[in-house]
Amino acid sequence: MFDQLSDRLQKVMKFLRGEGKITESNLNEALKQIRLALLEADVNYKVVKDFEARIKVKALDQTVLDSLTPAQQVIKIVRDELSEILGTTDKPLTFASAPPSIFMLVGLQGSGKTTTCGKLAKWAVGKGKNPLLVSFDLKRAAAQDQLRTIAGQLRLPFYEMTAQAMAKPKTALADLLVFTRNHGYDLLLVDTAGRLHVDDELMDELKFVKDALAPIETIYIGDAMTGQDAVKSAKAFAEKIGLTSLILTKLDGDARGGAALSIVAVTNVPVKFIGVGEKFDKLEVFHPDRMASRILGMGDILSLIEKAEQETDLKEAEEMARRLRKQEFTFDDFRSQLRQLKKMGLLEGLLGHLPQAGPFKKLAGAQMDEKRLLHFEAIINSMTAAERDDPKIINGSRRLRIARGSGRPVSEVNQLLRQFQDMKSMMKKSVFQKMMSSFK
Question: Of 86, 118, 142, which residue constitutes the final position of a domain?
Fold first, then answer.
């Protein structure tokens, strides 16, 4: 999402690092490049103007100019101000002191609102919540179909709004609240009506639902791919309905990312989650400071560690560490590692969390072929248990059989065997063994 903007801003940071002294002249040049980068990324013009003005005032402060590393000080100012645009710090969703907590999702049609409802439900289950999903749209009875399907896929309860009930919406919503309390659901996720454009009829319906349910969170779902249209829509919803939170969807897309940088400043409402894929587990807590660091090429190691902790089985990791120390690493272990990588997500996305400088630069910018990992796993699956345990017995005829069984050429089998041997050789180095011993 932020690749183009990140590339431009990183060039500005490199320019500043190359300046031995910060002057008003070279700062103006840097600010000009920052301004162009943000405008090209479709960031709201007023947001850009305010951003630039704040940086200039802070960067020309005498304390910064007199410091031993003025360029680094200015870069920190840019990072902090970028984080400010994005919302300063992450803010968790609010839950009611007495259940049920009611989350009302609003937004335009096609923004990913219904899918996000499912993602939030899955996230809530992981937090020990017991959610109930419901769709309420007075104009489109079929709007329930998608959410009902999603609830079925997640094996979560769905509340059916019948045509008869919808004919008396006030009573229907009152019955919904009674049902939620009586059945012990501590979270009610309400997917609401969506239209292609903001109109008074839609706003009136949403205000009616909000007044009837009194949700603790009114969450706007914004499609980050739509640029300034998402910003305008979010502002309209904030003014006419009142919002408490934002969730930006499709942050894994290739749009310019300006909406994500503008929407908080325009609505004065925090982004709490971002959607980074279509699957129901592709919903991430939004950390403004970490996102600012990633945009400037400083990486986001904390999020990478958290993702690894969520997806990694601790006992399995400890056993793997023991086997590595004893030089017992086999193709079965290697296959397990490949599967862990797939659970964590696309490699390019993971590597994007690394800093774009220093020893990580080459790795962070690497182009990883996801299909190659699948091919490697297919090759390993075509080996016998004895071959996976001791690859040295894999001779020419065995390689041919493995190639045929996996549907891959012999050259790929040879490549995997070489890479596996290289990996084992690397693991014999004391530095690697010391690093892995921390799991013990």
Answer: 86
Count of domains forming the chain = 3
CB contact set of 84 (below 8 Å; sequence gap of 6+): 54, 288
Closest of 215, 205, 188, 212 to residue 130, by C-alpha: 188
CA 44 from chain centre, in angstroms, equals 22
Whole-number Cα distances in Å, 180 to 80, 132, 183, 187, 296: 43, 7, 6, 8, 45
Contact 363, 351 (CB under 8 A): yes
Residues 432, 430: Cα–Cα separation, whole Å:
5
Structure tokens at 382: 């075509």
296 or 331: which leads in pLDDT: 331
Tracing tokens 């499609």 back to the chain, one arrives at 223
Write the single-letter amino acid at 58: K
Q: What does the DSSP assignment read for 2-17?
A: -HHHHHHHHHHHHHHH
Look up the domain containing 435 and give its range: 311-439
Task: Give the pair of three-digit tokens for residue 82.
Answer: 């970028």
Least-confidence region, from 32-41, 130-139, 412-421: 32-41
Name the residue with higher pLDDT: 380 or 14.
380
User: Cα separation of 420 and 334, whole Å?
Assistant: 8
From 318, 361, 309, 319, select the one nearest 340 (Cα to Cα): 309
- Residue 62's identity, in one-letter code, is Q
Question: CA–CA separation, 198 vs 337, rounded Å?
Answer: 48
Tell me which of 275, 298, 321 is where a domain ends.
Answer: 298
Question: Do 259 and 335 reside in the same domain of the chain?
Answer: no
Most confident of 42-51, 185-194, 229-238, 416-425: 185-194
On whether both 248 and 361 belong to a single domain, the answer is no
Asked if residue 243 lies in contact with residue 261, where contact means CB atoms within 8 angstroms, the answer is no
Token pair for residue 161?
């709004």
Reported as a single tens digit per residue, the pLDDT across 152-200 is 999 999 999 988 888 899 999 999 999 999 999 999 999 998 887 888 8
Q: Same domain, yes or no, for 333 and 375? A: yes
Q: Does residue 304 sit within a domain?
A: no
Q: Is 303 within a domain?
A: no
| 72 and 169 housed in the same domain | no
Query: Do residue 110 and residue 73 come from a single domain?
Result: no
Q: Say which residue the tokens 């690092």 belong to.
A: 17
Give the integer Cα–Cα distance in Å for 78 and 101: 38
User: What gap in Å lies between CA 113 and CA 220, rounded to an integer?
Assistant: 8
